[in-house]
Design a protein that fits this description.
- The complex is a heterodimer of chains A (46) and B (248).
- Chain A is 85% helix and 0% strand.
- With 46 residues, chain A is mostly helical.
- The longest helix of chain A has 39 residues.
- Chain B has one domain: Up-down Bundle (Four Helix Bundle (Hemerythrin (Met), subunit A)).
- Chain B starts with 6 loop residues before the first helix and ends with a helix.
- Classes of the chains: A mainly alpha (46), B mainly alpha (248).
- Chains A and B meet through α1 of A and α1, α2, α3 and α7 of B.
Chain lengths: 46, 248
């Protein structure tokens, strides 16, 4: 028996995981970098 | 290479290169994915699911590139004692693990409509899952080494990074050595069996994601460097305040 699969559902799921995962990694790394560099600047003022 | 070993010189370059790579990579990857999603025709056999190619293949390449970066930087750390090599290796681990997870997830999603199953324990899929576990092990080792002040632990993580590289040729040759539902490589050095309609958006997506990967690695290197410098400064201050003669 042939399954009736909507191929676009699989495409959208893969794109959400790929784009979402990459965006999350980029944002997380950028924000962590900004926080760490702000901490370093603050430690210079101590 | 040693010219860039100076953290101050590295930071001068990384300050403008990090946002440039992230912004350029983001724009190029978004354009390539839109091209793949909206302009590329469906494949004769795989239909619309062929569009998963533009996520899955760049993620697979970057997963392998991530561990290759760890292995090469670990060699530079152990052999030449390059000051930024250990930091570069650690910075590549998290995006490498992230792209390995994206590759496994998108591959599993692609497998369901094309192979009729989410997962098979064949050579390619299993060796890629092992790569994810290697990444997680490396991240745990490198974090433990940093918490202990890098006393010998950094060297253990570097050796683990080099030994783990044995999995890279195994992944590459797995579809040749063992029976697999996974297709053999479509793109090898100078050759491609992929039609131009799919090849060009694939190369554009691979370049875009590679720029993003580079930007993420640089951002993480800057984070690690800033943390090390902050901790060193705070320790020096604490030492100076403990020894009254030095504080003056």
């Amino acid at each position: 028996m042939r399954e009736a699969l909507n191929q676009w559902n699989f495409v959208i799921a893969a794109y959400v995981i790929g784009v979402g995962g990459t965006t999350a990694m980029a944002l997380w790394s950028w924000l962590a970098m900004c926080r760490a560099e702000a901490r370093r600047a603050k430690s210079r003022e101590l | 290479m040693h010219g860039y070993a100076n953290p101050a010189r590295f930071l001068r370059i990384a300050r403008w290169l990090t946002p440039a790579l992230l912004a350029g990579g983001g724009v190029l990857a978004a354009a390539a994915l839109a091209w793949g999603l909206l302009r590329v025709p469906p494949d004769r056999l795989m239909g619309e699911t062929v569009r998963i190619l533009f996520i899955h293949v760049p993620a697979a390449w970057l997963a392998l590139a991530g561990w290759s970066t760890i292995a090469l930087a670990s060699i530079a750390e152990l052999v030449w004692r390059h000051p930024l090599a250990g930091i570069a290796a650690r910075a590549a681990a998290v995006p490498g693990a992230g792209f390995t997870a994206i590759c496994l997830a998108s591959g599993s999603i692609w497998a369901r409509p094309t192979w009729g199953t989410w997962w098979v324990w064949d050579g390619r899929l299993t060796s890629f899952l092992i790569l994810l576990f290697l990444y997680l092990g490396y991240i745990a080792l490198a974090d433990a080494a940093q918490r202990n002040g890098g006393q010998g632990g950094g060297r253990v993580a570097a050796i683990f990074g080099i030994v783990g590289a044995i999995n890279i040729p195994i992944i590459n040759r797995s579809v040749v050595w063992w029976n697999s539902l996974h297709q053999p490589a479509s793109i090898t050095m100078g050759k491609s069996s992929i039609d131009g309609a799919f090849l060009w958006p694939l190369l554009a997506a691979a370049l875009g994601f590679s720029l993003l990967f580079g930007g993420i690695v640089l951002a993480r290197m800057r984070t690690l460097l800033a943390d090390i410098q902050t901790e060193a400064r705070l320790r020096r201050r604490a030492f100076e305040s403990d020894v009254p003669g030095l504080a003056a």
